[in-house]
Amino acid sequence: MNSKRNFVPFLALAILLMVSLACGSSASPTLVAPSVPPSNSGSQEQPTQAQAPTAVAQQNYKVGDIVAIGDHVLVVLGWENVQPNDFSKPDAGKKFVAVELLIVNNSQSAMPISTLLQMSMKDNTGQKYDVDFAASTAIGGGSLDGELAPGEKVRGKVGFQVAENATGLQFVFDASVWGTGKVFVDLGAEPVTVEPPASIVGETPQQTYKVGDVIQIGTVTLTVNGVSNPAGDQFSKPNPGNKFLVVDLTIENKGTAAITISTLLQMWLKDPSGKKYDVDLMASTASGGSSPDGEIAAGEKLRGQVGFQVPDNATGLVFVFDADVWGSGKVFVALP
User: Fold this and answer.
1) Which among 163, 162, 156 is positioned nearest to 139, based on CA atoms?
2) Which of 86, 87, 202, 238 has its CA 20 to 30 A from that of 38?
3) What is the DSSP string of 121-187?
4) Alpha-carbon span 185 to 128, nearest angstrom
């Protein structure tokens, strides 16, 4: 069951974000800072025939380049081959690949990210590979889907299923929905990882609350009551090197209309690097409580437990509650 615990439904998020993705600036992608050493990967062969039309050079970036996309910044931190598991296996003749990204919202308004609508891969034949459900499940990491608050960054991995013999892999980020065109990042012949930049222009600290604070979100109040680390049992236990972390919270609807809560779509954890940790169903089960999913009537108060799986040595974790679907922004709560 481990493979199913962290996947946020792609289709639901794509539908949720499709309308808001239509806005954005009109600037073309530009290189802010190159990776080291500098890359000449943007050049292409010119036609050798005298009468051949002049080729238009496609701007290609490389792993580690800091790329400005209008009011937003993208860095591809690397890629890796992902081992399948008992529940998620590639088709015959194919393999799982994960690309790790860092995205910063350098604008004054919330920015939606959709892996399904904006991310793909290509090989040197031009064959396109879309985001793959099974590969993303096998990764076991946090999804990049959702909204970024102004100045916020997110770090995560996106999974693909590609031909085993595919070469010349290239990650494609489609920012045309923001009016800024596509970004092409050459991944190189071998898996590689680079350290994220120490800081990126436009990244700003988010207002952060404390455990116990009663936080007003429109007509709703949210309180994180505490955090626990259940050990689990023989059927539900964390992976080696990880631990369960359960957030106990209370939500009260002080409005005049019912509201709907979705832990999968609205709640996750982040570490200081921006890495996301999605809701983990086994951790939620190990809490012994119930998640606060569903409809909350006007005037109703609901308390529940939401589980996550994080590294044993994780520090500086922040609980994120996304109320953008209500038009009320995000809430960040620092966890002890």
Assistant:
1) 156
2) 202
3) EE-TT--EEEB-HHHHHHH-S----EEE-TT-EEEEEEEEEEETT--S-EEEEE-GGGTS-EEEEE-
4) 14
pLDDT band at 55 (very low <50, low <70, confident <90, very high): low
Q: Find how far residue 122's CA is from the centre of its chain.
A: 20
The string of pLDDT tens digits covering residues 228-239 is 999 988 788 898
- The torsion angles phi and psi of 283, rounded to 5 degrees, stand at -65, -40
Q: What is the pLDDT of residue 198?
A: 86
pTM above 0.85, yes or no: no
Percentage helix, strand, coil for the chain under 3-state DSSP, each rounded to 5: 10, 40, 50
What is the pLDDT, as a whole number, of residue 27?
A: 60
> What is the amino acid identity at position 254?
K
The tokens of 329 are what?
């922004």
> d(Cα 336, Cα 272) in Å, to the nearest integer?
14
pLDDT exceeds 50 at position 3: no
**Mean residue pLDDT across the chain:** 86
Cβ contact 205:51 at 8 Å = no
d(CA 336, CA 105): 27
